[in-house]
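look at this fold:
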Amino acid sequence: MIYIICMAVAFLEEKYAVMDNMDRIIEKKKWSAKRIILIAGGVVLIVFLSFIMIKSVGGSKLNVDAERLIVGMAKNGNFREYIPVIGIVQPITTIYLDLQEGGRVEEIYVEDGAVLKKGDPILRLSNTDLELSLVNQETAVYNLLTQMQIAQNNARQNTISNQNLLVDVGSQLVEAERNYIMNKKLYESGVLSQDEFQATENNYLYLQEKQKLVVATIRQDSISSAQQMSQAAQSYEGATNSLDLMRRKFADLIVRAPVEGQLTALDAEIGQSKNKGERVGQIDVLSGFKVRVDVDEHYISRIYPGLEGQYKQGDSAYVLTIKKVYTQVSGGRFAVDMMFHGVAPSNIRRGQTLQIRIALSDETEALLIPRGGFYQQTGGNWIFKVTKDGHKAYRANIRIGRQNPDYYEVLEGLEPGDKVIVNSYDNYRDIQELILK
């Protein structure tokens, strides 16, 4: 190549000399200025072309400072696929205080954050419409009770009258029967006339029928009275139940703690009007805690009740279990509730955030390498493997399987004890070999 360039330079020099003076012969100089310039330009051209050729072949080697690299070792170990999540500590149960009746806040007995026992009063409302309804219902019950008592007295008096009538008729019937028997004997003896005997017999038969009628009347009145009293009792019972319900509604104007726990989010001021069903606070049950966790929707098909997670606090590790999965996705995430399995940390508080690892698989034996930035450039298809002497690193094809925040599972391409470079490959993604210095 250099020979060709020198020949070209000599040719151009001769041509320029001839063109300089066609008629005059000029004595050539071995190292003229033009010749030096042309040779220097040729050398620069050669260097440039060589650089281009080297680049086109692949620039396969690069010197790097070994101290700037992160080297990991492939090793066999127990591998479990898990995802790190952030959980928020919440009470195991929260009871919301929604008003059963609306009204005006007249009195507040406790402050927000107070620990209450079941039945402790929280606040009192006033409701004039409800008070008026209660008075009217009480009046209606009292009136119905009075009417029922009057009906009972009337039925009792009627029964007494009918019984007295039955006694009188019975007495008259006895006397009529005696006269009938006596007069019959006298009539048969011819002492008594037929008209007198007939009158005695008719009176006797009349009193018999009258006694039957009085007995039937007493029986019918008894049945009718029993039905009336039953209906009156049912009406009174219904009115009494309505009164009890009204009294319970009136008692609901005093809001009480439904369970033992801590009052939070109290929203009421004296003089403020509250509507029926409006929420004025909540009671957090302090007997235990749950952890509300947000999980990326990518894992929604792999998260289910019963999966375990782990929370580490100092040297202690605590196990949590997924109890409920909320499948509604919002903002690319869904929520799950986790409960401590066995012993829970004694110092956790409501609202505290916990870093939890949810296990997606059981522990298995696998070949592992540390996680690193190389995966973003290689997709887990290759990695720089360090030679045994530690002076070089070259590309090696690998296949990555499962992963967790600490390790990648290597399925192919590496052996236990192999050292690999795991940091980012941004500066040498096209390099074939690294020279470590």
Q: What stands out?
A: Confidence is low (pLDDT under 50) at residues 1-6, 15-28, 54-59. Residues 61-79+364-436 form a domain with the conserved putative lor/sdh protein from methanococcus maripaludis s2 fold fold (CATH 2.40.420.20).
